[in-house]
Amino acid sequence: MTCKTNEAVALNTEQVARLVRRNGVVTIKADKTQSDPEIDALLVELGNPGRGIPYYAIYPGGGGDPITFDGLISQQQVLGALERAGPSRAPQTVVVRPP
Prior knowledge:
Blueprint: H1 2-11, H2 14-23, H3 37-45, E1 55-58, E2 67-70, H4 75-85
Helix pairs in contact: 1-4, 2-4
């Protein structure tokens, strides 16, 4: 129930969608309806050793540690984290020319 509440009041809002579009954020949702060792490993790597959900991570556009939070969240928490993370960075293209 907490996941659905967070989606309704904090994640799937027009203000969050607008900031996600403006910053070119790539959103990913991991579904733990059924056990998944890869998702569990990522949760532990993110600092969630109990692998509890809901758990959210926002990766800063310039690199660095992800901004994480769990449990019930607010739209203001999400907007603040997205602002701190800044715009996503486009992957660098490297052109290799033969000698």
